[in-house]
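Subject — a protein and its fold
Fields — amino acid sequence, structure tokens
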Amino acid sequence: ERQKRLLNRLKQTGDKQDIDDFWNETLGEKKFYKKRSGQFWKYLCTLPINLERYQIFNELNKRTAALMTEDNCFVYACIQAGVNEETIDHMREVIRVRDFPQSKVQEISDATGIAFNVTIGYFDNSKDNRIIHYIPKECETARTIDLLLVEHHYMLNERLPMTTYFIRNYKEILKACGGMNIEKQMKIYTKRENKYVVRYDRTTPLWDVMKTLWECKYFEPISYGELFTYTTDLYKQNLAPFKDLTYAPKYCVQLKKKAESKEVNKNKCKFIPEHVFFADFECSTDGFHKAFNICYDSEDGSVSESIWGQNCATEFLERLPDKSLIYFHNLSYDINFILRHMTEVKGTPIIKGSRTMQITGLYKGRAIIIKDSYSVINKKLKLFPAMFNLQTGPKEVFPYNYYSSTLLANDNRTGVISEACKFVKDIETFMKNIDSIKGCRIDENHFDLEKYSTFYCKQDVRILREGFVKFRNDLLKEFDLNVYDYVSICFIANKLFENRVYFPNGNLYDLSNKPREFISRCIQGGRCMLSDNMKQKSEKKLIADFDAVSLYPSAIARLYTLEGIPKVMKDEMLSTEYLMRHLFDDDQKEPIGEKFMSGFFVLIKITEIGIHRHFPLIVCDPELNPELNVPRSSNTCCLMYVDHITLQDLIKYQGVKCEVLQGYYYDGNRDLRIRDEVKKLFELRLKYKKEENPLQEIIKLILNSIYGKTILSPIESKITIVDDKDAIRYAIRNYNHIVKFEGLDGSDKTIFKLTKSICRHFNFCPLGVNILSMSKRIMCEVFCTAEDLGMDIFYSDTDSMHLYNEDIPRLAEEFEKRYGRVLIGKNLGQFHSDFAEITPGKQSLAYKSIFCGKKTYIDLLTNDLNEVAFHCRMKGVKQDVIALTANEMFPEAIQCYYNEDKGLMVPQGKFDKDSEFSVMKLYKALYDGQEIGFDLCKSCQPCFEEKFNFSITTKTSFIRKLKF
């Protein structure tokens, strides 16, 4: 009962101190539950002998703390055993926590070819010592290491040049033999005729030494404060930095190849779905959200049902057959109402950031997979009809805030029309809908809450089902890929390119550990900045939003994949002159003579900048350059990770001189087939777009998702959901890995977030880095041409720039002279003006613009018809909140509202383009340095807070303050 009370307190608070209380109070009683694992030794040895070889120290100071925390005890023991540096580096990379569980030793054995004999010792004699053998399963044993695991601490198990007699009698020996050096004292094994006898060949097993030290109380616990100072759950790489870039290929590279048979993939699946459903919850949004209705369709639409009431989620689960796959559009929301009712959650939920992508589990023995359709088709549901040529149905007018938990208590189905009208803007349509929905109107002033809700919920589910099934069928027909097998569009795009580009090559490799970590540091996202990092303003001179056409596909269309594996640069290679002399020419496919480098990735130190740019190519990463307090994109000498594309551009466009400190290079072929493949897809999309075939939308999604999985970051934590009856046992066994835990809302389960013990993550980062670098080259070619011509550019955000419209023809002419390509158009590699049109067919241009900061600016748009609208951006603030705040602050100015269909802010009343508008005055105030607060909860879309325990609430106020 006490443990249950403590668990409930933990579930309510999630407080770190509570977790420590839980550990201290419970572990003594439940010691046999504790998972055998490796941690650093939590005691100081007060006997003045040197046990540093076993990561045991006599005092805690800066030096010993560093030795204690640089490597976890398992790695430390392997170092003492003489394991080579390559294997040690691999261990450092994959072991992500200080507390290394014994269950993972087999995985290390399989990966390294080392056999481990682990002797487990118990100081309290609660169990007999025993030995567990770990032998590599898939390769020959390279060597064997004996380890001792005591008090969760791994040590190299060997014999020591000392005796237990010395330990037990140290104080007496010290008095009698004070002048004798300690090494000689340690060999004393008995006393004869009042004289101590030394035997120089005497040794003692480590276990006997440790047990005797324990029994003689020579181990003094490190105080809690010191312990807290020197421990951490997450094993960070910078605690054990790489001395060089050498690596063992068997640990760090993995050939891209097809699975040997379809059975291999089947074995990885929990089950193959036999039934597919599409569903949606309707919920009350006052306070904690509660589901009151669910509608669902089967894949072919033959089943189309709804369930009303507070038990709708459990009734839905009851109706599901075994091996069901269910899609929700925005699973991150809907999962809050269904997860608590599942009998068991299997495996690790796939959660990326705040987005829940997939959860697998059981309900009363029936297997269920729940997936997020938004992760595959990342478009709002209301866009599906236009995307997939679907019937839309009546306009939705729904009084969401009227459907409160109070109104719906006891599964009430009767609503008051006059009250509901207070919660809708379009009362006329609302009344028409009540009359048009069969059986919805009860009498003159009452309507059926269930029928009204179900009508619109079913309409949404039908649109989701028809759109998603259309997407799946088209994908199967065109690319032979089944969307049901994948969790996101990135995985679909990656599989397509594996089949068409990566696998056919046969010499492309995914990377892990050291080479992946180093090359990934060359990832530089799109450039988002104001000219010279200064606020900008323009009036009465037309500005265009000049956009690159499909920037990332355009970059891929100029690229290649690098064959082979990365090689460490030798000292003589570490200069820009050497690298540029030996790098392939742009369209070179194979090594020829001195041009043998197909690509490289290096750390450079910029020492000189020949050309200062308004939009610099140099990226000053504050983590790499903590001493520099400058904007991220700036004309500043600094350290920078770059690939060959970026280094070429730094030299060409900014006249950079630099030192090359270290790096990897490739000397295999460049495979150009990725160019042809992306061009085929782009042309196929244009063809389908011209035919108004919805398949063009699928190809567009794939084109924009090709590079995503190539630079996917390693996942260093995981979520596990455990029944409360097992939660105490689980918490004790995994204590050192737990980041946080809390009760799953409305259930008898507990959610744990843990750090992963071992991280084996492979990706194709060389291609991902090259794609991002080539995309910036595409932008640089235009930017630098414009700058060289003295043209003003006000703002850039990844694939676009704001510049004067009148400069574009001269820019295009000069660009064609320099690069031999036509700049303006709608093909890959070209640019076009891309402001949203106020009236279709009439080009919009900015008559006035104010740029306050990154992703915070406004353009007053106009056209040949002298119409006015506003293109607004403000990071983290919704468009309707911008309009509402502006109208409240400046009521005397012309009021504006957000038109979602146009994607523009539209003014009301009489005006011309030189009138005073509320939103322009708002941005002018920000430009002038005024701090303004925006209440994000005033949006017409509810402001939700999704909690760790899978509950969700509506916030009533959330102020974001901005000042530039």
Observations:
- Residues 1-31+716-758 form one domain.
- The chain is about 30% helix and 25% strand.
- Residues 27-37, 227-241, 261-269 have pLDDT under 50 and may be disordered.
